[in-house]
Amino acid sequence: MLVAPLGSGSAGNAYYFESDGTSILVDAGFGPRETRKRLEQVGRDIEKLRAIVVTHEHYDHIRGAERIARKYGIPIYLTQGTLDASEIDRIETPVVVFPTTPPSPSAS
What we know:
108 residues, 6-stranded mixed beta sheet, 4 helices
């Protein structure tokens, strides 16, 4: 497994994960051009990404997700709450909503 931080901070957050030939981007705080550049710096190609996982809707985590997803046909995986709090166009952008279940009541 390869894990490469592409950026972490208020300017943008993104992490690249690769395992068994599958590569994903966790958070997309940079636009397509900057993400491509940062991936190239670690010897990887943005066109080989298979998914973008967005952890939450803060700008420094989601800023480039929609543009990257549309440009390269990569689905964005996120929760319904994150999707609702974002400005992602659900019709034009490939999105997959993680099913969420309420926490189970703790035994007393």
